[in-house]
Design goal:
heterodimer; A: about 300 residues; mainly alpha; MetI-like fold; 12 helices; B: about 300 residues; globular; BP-dependent_transpt_permease (chain A); transport (chain A); transmembrane (chain A)
Chain lengths: ~300, ~300
């Protein structure tokens, strides 16, 4: 690591003039250095991640525009057709519904739930985490205790309980996933605000006579929000997985379209005769979650040039 | 030390109590009548009233809570509606199955994930490592129910190596264990990599290397020694979480554990059974957490539990 830190600036300084430099650092050495490899790895993760995500997300967004059969249209004469038969790219299910259309329309619901859940949990997490870090004292005690308590709760069991009891509507499921996810954001925000709080600009703002809440909202939160939002992508991946697990267990939304977990659990009974009904929707989930995870990972590992320059 | 244990026990019991009370409130808040699901949709009003009286559901909520608290301290949570047996007994009979599955999964995870994480940390961002890294990301991106069904189809139906469901022979343990372990290995190995990389970059390691300490000792005694606590904590926390029922995997493989029990209890609104499951699993999870904390001084001689509690 220490080698690479000294190697990179030397190389970038040597490159533009194109004159033979006296530096012993050759291009090969730079290419082998830890920092270069790290940057390349992050670049590849971002590329693969973007491709995987877009392959899934673009068709989902265009589901209404694409020439697809209606997702809920049943045709009992075309039951369990294999993929690519009769223009059904993913085949059909046990009621003759077009599987691709079901997956895309279900994906819209899954994604909506995921994004809403992440927005809600992000908002709760950032507000409570920032308050806990900045104000300290009893606010911190209360928030930290709630965080700890939630860690020791049987999470999936509680989520199932809430959904089973209050019905699998989209708001309930979104809320439940948000509740499951806010601790992660809150803990991260709290730890970053604890660091920011001690910086000189906060004292300066205080001396200028700004109110504490104003300092927190106008000055501290803008400084931490960029890093906090990096977690959001990872949370979105988790949210999609959690939603599919809930809907697999029968605690997922039914209207307007069945989501991914539900489609897979429907197809489970036909796995020996119609492999595509489980395999293909599952692959779609994997592709998208891998993509989102890779994007999140790559963004986190990417060297932040602006900060280094400043 | 004793004060520390007592304090942690107190906190743990408080958590269990709050959990159980939350569940009590949630159940009563929710729409839906357990008497209907017990007596069936064709029951007459008189029959429903009788069922409610039998289970004390016609009393005021506060009185129900008082009765519930009394039951809680005598360890008798009433009769399960659907099993017609003491709820605690029903859960206790299922517990060993979940324990077996969780233990097997965490052992497999530890055996694979720790060496894998170390391997990745020793050659970060090389092409091979990047490949494995992407694989671990894939591992944590696969929904476990889907992995389960795929393994089931592959190794129980197409190539009948293992039984498809239940726990009649030890072979039945393989597929559910592997399903759980795939996700856990992905998570834990990435965590090991993170811990080890930061330790490899630490100054004390450079000092040790310059003193001529060999590579295996640097990796395992120095870096691993300092990563032991976070890794052990992660493994322990995952294990504790699994005791709450590996719900999804148990459902896929029809595993007779607590996880599939809770799904059934929720479907039938079996109040005593839900309460008994939550109580027992929460107690076990708290106990495991306590054991993890008590093991810290063994892993790191610098840790003094009594002082940590005072600070």
């Amino acid at each position: 690591m220490s080698l690479s830190d000294t190697a990179t600036p030397a190389a970038s300084a040597a490159q533009p003039p194109r004159t033979p430099s006296a530096s012993a650092v050759t291009k090969e050495l730079v290419a082998k250095a830890g920092a270069t490899r790290r940057r390349n790895a992050a670049k590849w993760k971002l590329r693969i991640g973007a491709v995987c995500t877009l392959i899934v997300i673009i068709p989902i967004l265009l589901a209404q525009v694409l020439p697809l059969p209606d997702a809920n249209h049943q045709d009992l004469s075309a039951r369990r057709l294999a993929p690519l038969v009769d223009g059904h790219l993913f085949g059909t299910d046990q009621l003759g519904r077009d599987l691709l259309s079901r997956v895309l329309h279900g994906g819209q619901v899954s994604l909506t739930i995921g994004i809403l859940a992440v927005v809600v949990s992000g908002a709760i997490g950032i507000i409570l985490g920032a308050a806990a870090g900045y104000f300290g004292g009893w606010v911190d005690t209360v928030v930290s205790r709630v965080l700890e308590a939630q860690m020791s709760l049987p999470l999936l069991m509680m989520l199932l309980l809430v959904v089973a009891l209050f019905g699998p509507s989209i708001p309930v499921i979104t809320f439940v996933i948000a509740i499951a996810q806010w601790p992660e954001v809150a803990r991260l925000t709290r730890s970053m605000v604890l660091v920011e709080r001690e910086k000189p600009y906060v004292s300066a703002a205080r001396i200028l006579g700004l109110h504490r809440i104003q300092i927190l909202i106008q000055h501290i939160i803008p400084n931490v929000i960029k890093q906090a939002t990096l977690v959001v992508l990872l949370l979105l991946a988790q949210a999609v997985l959690l939603e599919s697990a809930l809907s697999f267990l029968g605690a997922g939304p039914q209207r307007p379209f069945a989501t991914w977990g539900r489609i897979i659990s429907d197809g489970q009974d036909y796995i020996t005769t119609s492999w595509w009904m489980v395999t293909l929707p599952g692959l779609v989930i994997v592709l998208m979650v891998v993509g989102v995870n890779l994007l999140g990972d790559g963004l986190r590992d990417r060297p932040r040039r602006k900060k280094k320059g400043a | 030390m004793t004060t520390y244990i007592l304090k942690r026990l107190g906190q743990g019991l408080l958590t269990v109590f709050l959990t159980v009370s939350t569940v009590f409130v949630l159940i009563r808040l929710a729409p839906g009548d357990p008497a209907v699901s017990y007596a069936g949709p064709l029951a007459t009003t008189e029959q429903l009233a009788k069922v409610r009286e039998q289970f004390g559901l016609d009393r005021p909520v506060l009185e129900q809570y008082w009765i519930f608290l009394q039951q809680l301290f005598t360890g008798n949570l009433g009769t399960s509606y659907s099993f017609q047996a003491p709820a605690m007994q029903v859960v206790a009979e299922r517990m060993p199955y979940t324990l077996t599955l969780a233990t097997a999964s965490i052992l497999l995870t530890a055996v694979v994930a720790i060496p894998l994480g170390v391997w990745m940390a020793r050659r970060p961002d090389t092409n091979r490592e990047l490949g494995v890294n992407v694989l671990t990301i894939a591992g944590q991106s696969m929904p476990d129910f889907w992995t389960g069904i795929m393994l089931l189809t592959g190794f129980a139906v197409l190539i009948p190596l293992f039984p498809a469901s239940g726990f009649a022979t030890w072979g039945g343990l393989v597929l559910p264990t592997v399903t759980i372990a795939i996700l856990q290995i992905a998570l834990i190995s990435r965590m090991v990599r993170r811990e080890m990389t930061s330790n490899f970059a630490a100054p004390y390691l450079t000092v040790a290397r310059s003193r001529g300490v060999g590579s295996p000792a640097l990796t395992w005694r120095y870096a691993m020694g300092n990563s032991a606590i976070p890794v052990f904590t992660a493994l322990g926390t995952r294990f504790a979480a699994m005791l709450n029922g590996v719900v999804v995997v148990e459902v896929v493989f029809a595993w007779p554990g607590v996880g599939s029990l809770i799904v059934r209890a929720l479907e039938t609104r079996d109040y005593p059974l839900i309460q008994a499951t939550v109580l027992l699993t929460a107690l076990l999870a708290v106990a495991v957490q306590l054991v993890i904390d008590l093991a810290y001084p063994l892993l790191d001689p610098r840790v003094r539990l009594g002082k940590a509690a005072a600070a």
